[in-house]
Design a protein that fits this description.
The chain is an all-beta fold. It is 2% helix and 48% strand. The longest helix is centred in the last third of the chain and has 8 residues. It is globular and about 50 Å long. The termini are far apart. 46% of the residues are buried.
Length: 349
């Protein structure tokens, strides 16, 4: 099922327990849709959330609120039932906020176009940690809950690991020849997979982040803009050719295509029951793909993690100097005028 949003969409996220999906648009609007198994999408709500593009969307508080991040440097919390603004941090970052993830039940993380990562405590409504290890925009983030470590990729071509217990940068990779655009943790925490602009999937072993341990080139030369973990052995990729694919990791192979858009994929998300895959792209379309048949067919072909021959030590390496060698290839995204921010989280509440 699909629907024309009327404008290009960036972030997408599903409600954790209901048949609701939210998406943020380039014009600053937040759309909320209800879906069912009868192939229909009905818009429940339309909110003018931000002055500039709404780049990231996440449900929080068991789905009671939606948090959005914007190129206007702000973060907004919106009530799902009423559409009213619950809390607003106007100057969350000094630059455009590019990515946003849920870390714990009471913590979110945001990354901006300057490479700054902030951790927010939604109870205290304040920034608890700030990391400034990257020199270009934060493209993607993921979280290892067992070790309380945040993994981030950047346009500067590096991967970083930030320890939320100590508030320190634990590790950073050497400079890659290309921008790192997406990241997931797989193989029961033993592998970190990064998508790159040249279409290569770079596989890092946990605890050995200086350089990748393996590369998968079959998606090249199409930029891997989005990675979405399906399970410990399979990842869903979204590329700049508009193709969405199911890919196996160790053994590395393209299992099958899932669907496509006419333009580059912007974001992917799974429904609460893993029945639907949601996708947004530069073609203003929101599409939901029924994954049940795809998963059933591919289950017989997927290789279990037990067959992985990787034998890297699972201890995290502690780098004395996390700064990588510098590269020359950088990406500049549209940026807002820098704003000095000393405000606490959702200070107007």
């Amino acid at each position: 099922m699909e629907i024309d949003l009327g404008a290009n969409a960036f972030g997408i996220d599903f409600h954790p327990s209901k048949n609701l999906v939210a998406t943020g648009l380039i014009d600053g609007h937040l759309h909320l849709y209800r879906y069912d198994t009868e192939s229909s999408l009905v818009r429940e709500r339309k909110v003018r959330a931000h002055k500039e593009s709404c780049r990231a969307v996440r449900f929080i508080d068991d789905g009671q609120r939606i948090v959005t991040a914007s190129a206007d440097c702000s973060i907004l919390a919106t009530d799902v039932e009423t559409g009213a603004s619950v809390a607003h941090l106007e100057n969350a970052h000094e630059d455009a906020v590019n990515t946003l993830i849920t870390v714990t039940e009471t913590t979110i993380a945001s990354g901006d176009d300057k490479g700054c990562i902030k951790i927010w405590d939604t109870r205290q409504r304040s920034c608890s940690h700030e990391f400034n290890v990257h020199e270009d925009y934060i493209s993607c983030m993921t979280f290892a809950s067992d070790s309380m470590k945040l993994v981030a990729t950047s346009g500067d071509g590096t991967l970083s690991v930030c320890n939320l217990r100590t508030g320190k940068v634990q590790s950073q990779s050497e400079f890659s020849e290309d921008e790192l655009l997406s990241v997931v943790i797989m193989k029961n925490g033993r592998k970190v997979i990064c998508g790159t602009q040249n279409g290569i999937l770079m596989l890092y072993s946990w605890g050995f982040f200086k350089d990748c341990s393996d590369r998968f080139v079959d998606l090249s030369p199409n930029s891997v803009d989005v990675l979405l973990k399906l399970d410990e052995d399979r990842v869903i990729t979204g590329c700049d050719n508009g193709i969405i694919s199911l890919v196996g990791i160790l053994p590395n192979r393209i299992i099958q295509p899932i669907g496509s858009h006419e333009f580059p994929i912007e974001d992917l998300s799974l429904s609460h029951d893993n029945k639907f895959l949601g996708s947004t792209a530069h073609d203003s379309m929101l599409k939901l793909w029924d994954l049940e048949e795809i998963i059933e067919v591919s289950n017989g072909n997927a290789s279990g993690a037990a067959g992985d021959s990787d034998s890297d030590n699972e201890e995290m390496d502690l780098d004395n100097d996390p700064k990588p060698s510098r590269g020359t290839k950088r990406k500049t995204k549209s940026k807002s005028t820098p704003v000095d921010t000393k405000t606490s989280f959702f200070a107007d509440m």
